[in-house]
Amino acid sequence: MPGKRSEKRCRRRLTLRFGTDKPERIAFTEDVSHDGLFIKTVHVYPPNTRLNILLVLSDNTEVRLEGVVAWAKRVPPQMINIAHKGGMGVRITHILEGEAEFLKLCGPATSTERYGSAK
Length: 119
Known about the structure:
Blueprint: E1 10-11, E2 15-19, E3 25-33, E4 36-40, E5 50-56, E6 62-73, E7 87-97, H1 99-103
Antiparallel strand pairs: 1-3, 2-3, 2-5, 3-4, 4-7, 5-6, 6-7
């Protein structure tokens, strides 16, 4: 799967909320890139599910994203902190709010972002 990624992921633990209609479930990121992120959670959705995400940066800036679940790995709740990669890989499709702050998380992009600035 690493060959499919267009951006390098940066390890970042950030608080977020996510859901299909509105962001209501609380979780954390494990890693982030300009075009995707990993959500560590026991509440996974199947691949191709569209998600609304509210990401809270370390300075409490909020970033609103839309994304699609690329893959998911369900683990029992008692194993979430032990199991490797329990949660969902999400491909970002749109940054609705806070794009500049989000793009600073991993430094300059090494290739063209999928969602791009020219929407």
